[in-house]
Amino acid sequence: MGVLEGKVAAITGAGRGIGREMAIMFAHEGAKVVVNDLGGATDGSGTDGIADDVAAEIIAHGGEAIAHREDIATVAGGESLLATACEHFGGLDILVNNAGILRDRTLFNMEEQDWDAVIRVHLKGHYCCSRPFARYIREQGRNHCRIINFSSVSGLFGNFGQSNYGAAKAGIAGFSRVLALELGKYGCTVNTISPAALTRMTIPLRERRGETVSEQDLIDSGPHHIAPVATWLASEAAGHISSQIFHVANGLVGIMQQPAIIASFQHERAWTLEELDEYMPKLLQAKKEHDRETAEAGKPVMIKAGWGSQN
Ligand SMILES: NC(=O)c1ccc[n+]([C@@H]2O[C@H](COP(=O)([O-])OP(=O)(O)OC[C@H]3O[C@@H](n4cnc5c(N)ncnc54)[C@H](O)[C@@H]3O)[C@@H](O)[C@H]2O)c1
């Protein structure tokens, strides 16, 4: 029996890339899957029927799936995602907010439509799909639900030329922390994945640097590396885990630090500028030491079993 037997999942942007891999693995583990995708280009333009192809592929392999081709960055699209799950599969247990687009430009060249399009699909998309699901969980008393959101190192660390995408992805991390608090008492966990995988979103970035992507690169760093962690987070095994950010890429799974105060000094009155001349360097020094410790602690511990062999 699969770890998602009896569960219903809705995955946005599941027509290709990371979303498709999650849809296939969720179905393999017994979930009935609503495969959402409007099938646009990387910049969000256009549509096609790729959600139908993934749903058909799941059904051909004996699973249960239905395609949903709506734009998840509209309130109506988010509501119809939930309605599709309820009408076809009798409810919804797992929402994965994965759909995404890119419009990379430095701020100098960032037009209003590039800013709005990226914030809309990522940040508003998370809102549009999560709000109906949150209301449904509360109204129906649906237990053991899961929301899995998609952030990025672009927003968590920063990445040149992605102020729109980075703002949306940092916003998603903040959104997830709040949602975890609000839905915790209804037994719903909310976690965030920061993935790295070779997909149509990232392959062109490599190619622009003059690097080629081989078949072996796709095996080593493809989107199938993200699906097992998402599946595990969606399963009963992860019922006690919420408000966390997991970094997942080519065989690596890591837990990320959340914003926290590293060092502080307290006065009984407001600081003078002269005092800040003295204390700001102490704060920056504390931050530097903390960064060094974190960089060391975050280095991957290599797990030999399964690394190129089954033994
Ligand atoms: N690939 C990476 O290395 C990487 C890194 C960091 C974050 N991410 C995030 O992971 C998620 C998946 O990315 P991917 O690499 O698989 O990209 P992808 O382009 O392969 O897939 C994204 C899918 O989302 C769909 N989509 C876009 N806008 C939509 C909308 N409004 N409604 C419905 N569907 C829509 C697209 O049609 C596409 O099929 C994204 O949120 C992305 O930002 C990916």
Topology:
Elements (H helix, E strand, L loop, with lengths): L7 E4 L5 H12 L3 E5 L13 H11 L3 E5 L6 H15 L4 E4 L14 H29 L5 E5 L2 H6 L4 H22 L4 E8 L6 H6 L6 H7 L5 H8 L10 E5 L2 E4 L17 H25 L14
Helix pairs in contact: 1-9, 3-4, 4-6
The structure holds nicotinamide-adenine-dinucleotide (NAD).
Describe the structure.
This protein is of the alpha/beta class. The chain has helices at residues 17-28, 50-60, 75-89, 112-140, 153-158, 163-184, 203-208, 215-221, 227-234, 273-297; strands spanning 8-11, 32-36, 64-68, 94-97, 146-150, 189-196, 245-249, 252-255. It has 2 domains: 8-255, NAD(P)-binding Rossmann-like Domain (Rossmann fold, 3-Layer(aba) Sandwich); 261-311. Helix content is 45%, strand content 13%. Helix 3 runs parallel beside helix 4 (112-140). The longest helix is centred in the middle third of the chain and has 29 residues, at 112-140. The radius of gyration is 21 Å and the shape is globular. The protein binds nicotinamide-adenine-dinucleotide. Nicotinamide-adenine-dinucleotide binds next to helix 1, helix 4 and strand 6. Nicotinamide-adenine-dinucleotide (NAD) is lined by residues 12-13, 15-19, 36-40, 42, 44, 71-73, 98-101, 121, 125, 150, 152, 195-197, 199-202, 223.
